[in-house]
């Protein structure tokens, strides 16, 4: 069974930084694109970033480009999200989500496995 | 970005009833649409992809249909464990977008 386990969430002050990790197990991590999807408290789902299987291609929602960086370390089966200049509106649960192909393009970008989520709270 | 609009926002139905959720796209997404189920405090679960293909392990009472800009998720014979929020997601055009969700309650 595929497993994804996020870590690194917590309370951070506005303007601060945080790095989330997502450890993958029980599948060939380096052959699948990976994504981050967030959910503000009581709200819906928002895709925020994706990365191809080899890390060569990255995609971001326009609103977050420049502040957030997605990366991966295939030797460690781990996905990352570096978040800088955090704002109150970034408060959310952040899910890592596995794509179904190598690339972050149609028709591969739906998500067949999700982690349990990491809560990030931005507050002074 | 393509906007996805779900209706109704909430529905309440009895066990055994058939329920239908609609998802409309602001422009065509072809057949590139997925449906997810999310229970409180849990991660979303993929139910359907490519508009009508049932994901492995998903009960056959769930079905999806539609194309272009209008899609439906149908639950035949609603069960107590189907109480959840359901989201559609288009993956035709970057940036991949979700509907706002439909909450299904059991009467």
Q: Taking Cα atoms only, what radius of gyration of chain B do you get, to the nearest Å?
A: 13 Å
C-alpha end-to-end distance of chain B? 36 Å
Topology pattern of chain B, helix = H, strand = E: EEEEEEEEEEE
Low-confidence stretches of chain A: none
Query: Averaged pLDDT of chain A, please?
Result: 95
pLDDT < 50 stretches of chain B: none
Q: What is the general shape of chain A? A: globular
**Biggest sheet record of chain A:** 7 strands, mixed
Task: Report the major sheet of chain B.
Answer: 7 strands, mixed
User: What is the number of helices of chain A?
Assistant: 0
Q: What is the overall pLDDT average of chain B?
A: 97
Overview of this protein structure:
The complex is a heterodimer of chains A (124) and B (107). With 124 residues, chain A is mostly beta strands. Chain A contains no helices and 11 strands. In chain A, strand 4 and strand 5 (45-51) form a beta hairpin. The mean pLDDT of chain A is 95. Chain B has 107 residues and is mostly beta strands. Chain B has strands at 4-7, 10-13, 19-25, 33-38, 45-49, 53-54, 62-67, 70-75, 84-90, 97-98, 102-106. In chain B, the strands form 2 sheets. In chain B, strands 2, 4, 5, 6, 9, 10 and 11 form a 7-stranded mixed β-sheet that branches. The N and C termini of chain B lie far apart (36 Å). The model of chain B has no long low-confidence stretch (mean pLDDT 97). The interface between A and B is medium-sized, with 24 and 25 residues.
């Amino acid at each position: 069974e595929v497993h994804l386990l996020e870590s690194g969430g917590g309370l951070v002050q506005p303007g601060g930084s945080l790095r989330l990790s997502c450890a993958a197990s029980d599948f060939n991590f380096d052959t699948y694109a990976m994504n981050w999807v967030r959910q503000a408290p009581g709200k819906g789902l928002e895709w925020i970033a994706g990365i191809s299987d080899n890390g060569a291609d990255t995609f971001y929602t326009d609103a977050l480009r420049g502040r957030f960086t997605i990366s991966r370390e295939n030797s460690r089966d781990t996905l990352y999200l570096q978040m800088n200049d955090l704002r109150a509106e970034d408060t959310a649960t952040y899910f890592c989500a596995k794509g179904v192909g190598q690339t972050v393009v149609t028709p591969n970008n739906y998500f067949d496995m999700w982690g349990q989520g990491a809560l990030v709270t931005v507050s002074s | 970005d393509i906007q996805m609009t779900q209706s109704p926002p909430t529905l309440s139905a009895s066990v055994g009833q058939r329920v239908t959720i609609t998802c409309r796209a602001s422009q065509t997404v072809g057949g590139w649409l997925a449906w997810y189920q999310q229970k409180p405090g849990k991660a979303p679960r993929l139910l359907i992809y490519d508009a009508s293909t049932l994901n492995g392990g998903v009960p056959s009472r769930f079905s999806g249909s539609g194309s272009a800009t209008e899609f439906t998720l149908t639950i035949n014979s609603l069960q107590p464990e189907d109480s959840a929020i359901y989201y559609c997601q288009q993956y035709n055009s970057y940036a991949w977008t979700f509907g706002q969700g439909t909450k299904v309650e059991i009467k």
